[in-house]
């Protein structure tokens, strides 16, 4: 469904047309669904009929190898969605019915009710059977060695772990729910064997479990007595967002409830967070963007007209500058150690990507009898993002900025995660991830000037990412050239005397429905280099310009300029060279721009102090 045309796309088309988009948005991993052969297209590939065959709908095995090789050449890892939790019920073309010379009690599947999943209409494996273990373990080795996949996402792990398959089971965290006669010990042993085998074949493989129960030890190594997965999907998070969007007004959103839902995971067991998936947006249900903006997405996304309050809210929350972006960003920043964007509205950053951002704004609907076998909602509308006068480009730009922020500061891999403020009255959440300070203002109307936020380290802070910046479709209300100096709070080492249990604080401007991320300035490096550094958002703008023109200079054009950006870039580059020659200085390249100053031209080192001050005094309209 990655094609812009209403048809099934091929592996080669995906490799050539979609993978470059994923790479451009700074993702590092692609997760592919429905690779194993399956008879019913609308099953998402979950009703597997041939475990050792590539789905022929999208091409040949050589075509799939081309896709994997192309991804690797772009620096992308490739994970495969493997379905070992159940199999198609088909007898004619499926594994069901094969007895491999054994009695029915010793076949691939359990007999009776234990061998049938009543909600999925599929057969359930007998993991205690030696032949089943050989079959499934050989299957994993086949995909790793023959197609060079970098790991797997195991589908339906909750169904495997328990005899009740998680059906009508509200897991509360009570350990009796995990370790009892309801636990399928044979399945647990198989998963331990599977992870051991994968790691022996490919030590740096990534293996993810789709588990909603939160089984203790699921994400710990087998050598520690764990089941051996690297990550668990944080499946409760998208359900929480859908509940809020469907059932609560903006004023009813609870900051504490959101914070607890996003951080509800076991220490040292890593999770992949995601805001929505095909489960939330299939067959008539809506994506987050469509929940937020609904029918106005058809008529109100043009930049040639003023945004309506609905569109303004939708873009903000979707990215965080207005609403949907806020949802995606706080999910990424607080929800786990990796981030998944799914089916066109998200992708993965450990980061994982199932097809890429904003390719389908409405909903997913596979061809089926109920819709006349139509492909209309089973495709990716890439033109929406590519059309310059449509606001979808802002949402995509922020998606790219989120990932660039992690590339620069590696906050997802940091074990430091502290929520210091869940302000219910003002609808503000403040937390630290790594050495970054995140300030989310979910209030629909209120802007707070001089809002006090706590932090760990003393010093000077600047803006690293601002959802309200012009390039993200925001209003540019936060100044990126402002230095925020901390003040000590209370007695050092005595948390109860600190501000929100943090030893230092600084004050910020927090507009309604925005998120601003602050980083601590390394003043010693700054003084040594004598370089004016740039923010993540500015670096992304430079990257976008390079993608379009391939050889542009490192001077950034003011977001407020009304002139042609290309002409301005050329003129400023020439002016910059003249200044350097006049000073007898050598132009130096800026390979790793740090963070800061939006709406300010970036210049190299060794400029005279009066000239720097003159540039800082300019307004965006100069």
UniProtKB/TrEMBL annotation:
An example Gene Ontology biological process: glycogen biosynthetic process
EC class (word): transferase
SMART domains membership: Aamy
One Gene Ontology MF term: 1,4-alpha-glucan branching enzyme activity
Location within or outside the cell: Plastid, Amyloplast
Pfam families according to UniProt: Alpha-amylase, Alpha-amylase_C
Keyword Plastid: yes
Region (Disordered) location: 557-622
Domain (Glycosyl hydrolase family 13 catalytic): residue spans on this chain: 14-402
PANTHER family (alphabetical): 1,4-ALPHA-GLUCAN-BRANCHING ENZYME (PTHR43651), 1,4-ALPHA-GLUCAN-BRANCHING ENZYME, CHLOROPLASTIC_AMYLOPLASTIC (PTHR43651:SF2)
The protein's name in its UniProt record: 1,4-alpha-glucan branching enzyme
Organism: Gossypium lobatum
């Amino acid at each position: 469904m990655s094609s812009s045309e209403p048809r099934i796309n091929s592996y080669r088309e995906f490799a050539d047309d979609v993978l470059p988009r994923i790479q451009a948005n700074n993702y590092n991993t692609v997760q592919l669904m429905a690779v194993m052969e399956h008879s019913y297209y609308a099953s998402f590939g979950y009703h597997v009929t041939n475990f050792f065959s590539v789905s022929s709908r999208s091409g040949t095995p050589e075509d799939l190898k081309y896709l994997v090789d192309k991804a690797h050449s772009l620096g992308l890892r490739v994970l495969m969605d493997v379905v070992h939790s159940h199999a198609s019920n088909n007898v004619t073309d499926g594994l069901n019915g094969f007895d491999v010379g054994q009695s029915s009690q010793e076949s691939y599947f359990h007999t009776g009710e234990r061998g049938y999943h009543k909600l999925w209409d599929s057969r359930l494996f007998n993991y205690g059977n030696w032949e089943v273990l050989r079959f499934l373990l050989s299957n994993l080795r086949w995909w790793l060695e023959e197609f060079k996949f970098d790991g797997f996402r195991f589908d339906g792990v909750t169904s495997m772990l328990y005899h009740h398959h998680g059906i009508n089971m509200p897991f509360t965290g009570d350990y009796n729910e995990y370790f009892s006669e309801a636990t399928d010990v044979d399945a647990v042993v198989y998963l331990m064997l599977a992870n051991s085998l994968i790691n022996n074949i490919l030590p740096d493989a990534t293996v993810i479990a789709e588990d909603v129960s939160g089984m203790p030890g699921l994400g710990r190594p087998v050598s520690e007595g764990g089941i051996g997965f690297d990550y668990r999907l944080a499946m409760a998070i998208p359900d929480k967002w859908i509940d809020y969007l469907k059932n609560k007004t903006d004023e009813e959103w609870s900051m504490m409830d959101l914070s607890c839902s996003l951080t509800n995971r076991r220490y040292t067991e890593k999770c992949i967070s995601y805001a929505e998936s095909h489960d939330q947006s299939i067959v008539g249900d809506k994506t987050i963007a469509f929940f937020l903006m609904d029918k106005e997405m058809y008529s109100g996304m043009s930049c040639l007209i003023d945004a309506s309050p609905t569109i303004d809210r939708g873009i903000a929350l979707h990215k965080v500058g207005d609403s949907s972006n806020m949802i995606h960003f706080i999910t990424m920043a607080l929800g786990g150690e990796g981030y998944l964007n799914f089916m066109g509205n998200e992708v993965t950053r450990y980061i994982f990507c199932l097809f890429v951002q904003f390719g389908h704004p409405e909903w997913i609907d596979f061809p089926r009898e109920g819709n006349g076998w139509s492909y209309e909602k089973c495709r990716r509308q890439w033109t929406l993002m590519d059309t310059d006068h449509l606001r979808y480009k802002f949402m995509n730009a922020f998606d790219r900025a989120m990932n660039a922020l992690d590339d620069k500061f590696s906050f997802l891999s940091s074990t430091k995660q502290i929520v210091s403020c869940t302000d219910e009255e003002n609808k503000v959440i403040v937390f630290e991830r790594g050495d970054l300070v995140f300030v989310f203002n979910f209030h629909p109307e209120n802007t707070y000037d001089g809002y006090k936020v706590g932090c760990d380290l003393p010093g000077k802070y600047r803006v690293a990412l601002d959802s309200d910046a012009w390039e993200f479709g925001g209003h540019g209300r936060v100044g990126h050239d402002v230095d925020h100096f901390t003040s000590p709070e209370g007695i050092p080492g005595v948390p109860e005397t600190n501000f929100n249990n943090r030893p230092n604080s600084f004050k910020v401007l927090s507009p309604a429905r925005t998120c601003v991320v602050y980083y601590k300035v390394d003043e010693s490096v700054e003084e040594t280099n004598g370089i004016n550094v740039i923010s993540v958002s500015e670096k992304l703008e430079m990257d976008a310009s390079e993608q379009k023109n391939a050889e542009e200079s490192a001077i950034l054009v003011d977001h407020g300029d009304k002139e042609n950006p290309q002409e301005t870039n050329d003129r400023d580059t020439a002016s910059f060279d003249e200044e350097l020659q006049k000073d007898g200085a050598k132009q130096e390249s800026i390979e790793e721009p740090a963070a800061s100053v939006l709406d300010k031209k970036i210049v190299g080192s060794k400029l005279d102090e009066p000239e720097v001050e003159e540039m800082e005094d300019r307004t965006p309209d100069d």
